[in-house]
Amino acid sequence: MDTWITTKNWADGKFDLPPKGETAQAYIRTKKKIKYTKNGRNVVYQKQWILDYLNNNIREPKAN
Questions:
Q1: Is residue 12's pLDDT more than 90?
Q2: DSSP string of 9-55?
Q3: Could you state, in order of their start, the residue ranges of all structural domains in the chain?
């Protein structure tokens, strides 16, 4: 069974995830870049959805 991660948990960097602010999370949800679901009025993610988002947004550093 997957663990549900709240916006607060992700903002605090729990579950071995890099922290992402709640405002930034709202922005990526409105741009439809991440999967999420709502439990009542609370937004929740599965850890795999967050990892998919992070892996799809890897950028190479600029060469000097």
A1: yes
A2: HHHTT-TT-----HHHHHHHHHTT-S--EEETTEEEEEHHHHHHHHH
A3: 4-56
